UniProtKB/TrEMBL annotation:
<keyword id="KW-0812">Transmembrane</keyword>
<dbReference type="InterPro" id="IPR007047">
    <property type="entry name" value="Flp_Fap"/>
</dbReference>
<feature type="transmembrane region" description="Helical">
    <location>
        <begin position="27"/>
        <end position="49"/>
    </location>
</feature>
<protein>
    <submittedName>
        <fullName>Flp family type IVb pilin</fullName>
    </submittedName>
</protein>
<dbReference type="Pfam" id="PF04964">
    <property type="entry name" value="Flp_Fap"/>
</dbReference>
<keyword id="KW-0472">Membrane</keyword>
<keyword id="KW-1133">Transmembrane helix</keyword>
């Protein structure tokens, strides 16, 4: 049977080694970084991408029976 008078010398050390929440924080930071990168890419290349999609839409509309791409 365990000795009831035994008191751990440093009970807070066990909590300091607990890293269960650290991975959730790391995943959150990773997702935030990816979202920020997507925003930067959209703002940087948004105009040229719109031109590419408009050109593609015009070509598809010209060769199909669809009246518009929207």
């Amino acid at each position: 049977m365990a000795d009831p008078t035994w008191i751990p010398a440093r009970p807070h050390d066990r909590r300091a080694d607990d890293e269960r929440g650290a991975s959730a924080v790391e995943y959150g930071l990773l997702i935030a970084g990816i979202a920020a990168l997507i925003v930067v890419v959209v703002f940087a290349f948004g105009g040229s991408l719109k031109g590419i999609f408009t050109s593609t839409c015009s070509k598809v509309t010209a060769s199909a029976t669809v009246k518009s791409c929207s």
